[in-house]
# Entry
Amino acid sequence: MHQDVTPLLSVQLLHEELALQWVVSATPVREAALSQAWFFFQLMSKSMTLHLHNSERLDAPRAQRFPERFVDDISALVCNVCTEITSRYLQDAEFAERLNSSLAFFLNDLLSLMDRGFVFALIRSYYKQINTKLPKAPNPNLLISMRMDLIRIVCSHEHYVSLNLPCGRLSPPNSPSPSISSTTSQSSVFSSPAQDKTVTNMFELSVPFRQHHFLSGVILTELALILEPDVEGVFFLQKKAISTLHNLLCSHDTDPRYTEPAVMRSISYLYLPLIGIVLETLPQLYDFTDPHAQRVRHASSMMDEVDSDGGTISQTVAMAIAGSPLPTVQKTTSFPLPPAPHRPGSALSAESSRNLLVCALWVLKNAEQDCLHRWFSSLSVIQLTRVLELLSLCVSCFQYKGKKAFERINSLTFKKSLDMKARLEEAILGTIGARQDMVKRSRVPPLSLPERSPYATQENVRWRKNVTQWKPSSEKTEKSQAERELEITVDGNMATEANLVVLDTLEIIVQTVMLSEMRESVLGGVLKVLLLSMSCNQSALYLQHCFTSQRALVSKFPEMLFEDDTELCSDLCLRLLRHCSSCISSVRTHASASLYLLMRQNFEIGSNFARVKMQVTMSLSSLVGTSQKFNEDYLRRSLKTILTYSEDDLELRDTTFPEQVQDLVFNLHMILTDTVKMKEHQEDPEMLLDLMYR
# Structure
């Protein structure tokens, strides 16, 4: 009996019969199978795995693992399921979403079992069916959402990177490794042979890119389509598309297989077109440099600027001390690059914009520098300006808040929640019934009941089912505190790393344009981004690197400050003086060094540093007259450091430079002293006039 059954079982395999019967079954049976599709899909994938193991075909070529009839049945089954999704999503959206997710997990399993090219063809067929329905669909957003869910689940495959066939260099091989794809698999995926990539089309979401990197190409295409300016009312789709990409990049960072920098550089090739997508979407991103937002941000910073009636000296009066009739230094803390187009109504939210900028910075961080250098060299001045605008937006978005700022935000949030709770209770108490009784009972002090009652102190709770939520929990408080500490640390590290990536990208841009005709047009924008980062709240670690880059830039291109643009020199002096009054010694040291080298370079050009002297004097007058958190003692220490630098400078010891520096430092000390006296004699007009014109 056993010998007769064995041959029969070896022919009628479970997964083959399931696929066949599902395709040819009548409507009632098919309906029952669709309602439990997740179970039958999992049953098929497990049966396929067991069959490959028992038949010792796990090492066989993927195209030869399963018979052609079964492959055709799978194609028909996926097509039928997709038809059910597109035809029933309006009548029963929940059913369609469940069926769509079940199909996605099944395709995910098939990537590990069958020919990858065949599975990609199934995904392409799914997309074609969805796209056919979209133009006439009453609710196309739901179809697009399910399409995104499917590709999100498929891309959660553990070998997602290998499935995308990432190239190692600018000219990719036909197949990265034999284990990733067979020749048959490649021919079934790509309709045309692989083409040699140039740097330009590596950053474009072109047909060759989508063919060579199928899954990442699909994700980036979804993102590009949903971020088009004329697409309106799809905020949740934008958030879903950006979150899918963001989570995917996070998974690469946390994967222990991809810790080597060389591996991450290879993975970054999968997302190079993202930079172009973000540049096109730039007008739609949340404007973190908005003046209203900046006023809120700077109200809590250490470098507040207030009006003259806020306890500080009027800027006009302070400028008179410096010997300038009217202030000419701009007070703005943002340095706008060429204005972007008007932001349309489909602008992204702050959260989505932040996540999208994180993704762009991830690509810039991990991409090969030579690749970025060659791409930047292929861009025009206008395109490079847009890149600089993107970097400036990143600087405005990722600012170092610090512990005090987080505590202030949490306090405001807590007060707001209490206010909302009070309003809610007031609305509830406005009606008569059980709700009013419940709220009143919750405000009654606990009754003194016998200890044997487990609810002795909880009788004010109407329903004892939820009694646990009324118990005070010190553990929850401690956990919340730990979570806040972690949030502060992560946010600080994030801000520092984001700005360091911006700094590295600026260095690559400078190296790219320093010998080209675009130098004069681009370098000013680079310095403006640096100045913007200096004006924002930054960590001490970043500021040290920022000052180093600023000194190198000014040293290589001094004419940018001393011959061309007076405004840049003025802004730079103001930023450096502001950081010279920092409470952090390392920041003061670097700011003092930058300010001293600025004087030195100006002196080497014309045997004096009259321009820097004038701008520093005016900037100091503006700073001490308008900054509420200005620290006089720290600034005096920085001025003493500058004086020490000039005395120890052996190259210029025999020139008039040390004497000029000494005169400038003396004048700056006098400005500080007179400003302090003006604060003491604000009610004495005659003394104020004497100090102004002395």
Q: What stands out?
A: The two ends are 118 Å apart (CA to CA).
